[in-house]
Design brief:
Layout: H1 12-19, H2 32-43, H3 62-70, H4 73-78, H5 96-107
The structure holds heme C (HEC).
The site of heme C (HEC) has 22 residues, from helix 2 and helix 4.
Length: 113
């Protein structure tokens, strides 16, 4: 008797870019609410909120995020560019798709959309 093995990825869409980094990354429709904030909330606010946020950089809301977006530190740190502290600190680098989307949002002028 042959037992079938059925593999059902539970979060297929969430992990798609991580599993297949060469998959197309759609940066044409980047918005703060869908592409930027959920990533920062999940990966960054643990250290960047509260009374003494990491590096004195708060990332608790849109206005906070715009400050580091405009001064270049947001993209510099998630891209691990020289001269910036690599973020997330002590964690895995964000997928290149997530980084590209964040950078696109910054280049679009940080719309609150
Ligand atoms: C484990 C805690 C932790 C996490 C998670 C974390 N940070 Fe940081 N972050 C720090 C600390 C601490 C500093 C101060 C600099 C240092 O110690 O490297 C810092 C500094 C920064 C800076 C200033 C960098 C510079 O070169 O001046 C930015 C921007 C930043 N973080 C953004 C982020 C973003 C965006 C994320 C999520 C992708 C993130 N951080 C995740 C702890 C963290």
């Amino acid at each position: 008797m042959v037992m079938g093995i059925l593999i059902v990825p539970s979060c297929y869409n969430d992990n798609y870019q991580d599993l297949y980094p060469s998959a197309p990354c759609d940066t044409t429709q980047v918005t703060y609410s869908v592409d930027v904030w959920p990533v920062l909330k999940a990966q960054c606010t643990g250290c960047h909120s509260g009374d003494s946020p990491g590096g004195n950089v708060a990332l608790e809301n849109y206005n906070d995020v715009v400050i580091v977006a405009k001064n270049g530190k947001l993209v510099g740190s998630v891209r691990h560019n020289p001269g910036y502290s690599p973020m997330p600190k002590d964690g895995a680098k964000l997928s290149s798709c997530k980084i590209n989307k964040i950078e696109k949002w910054v280049n679009d002028g940080t719309p609150n959309n």
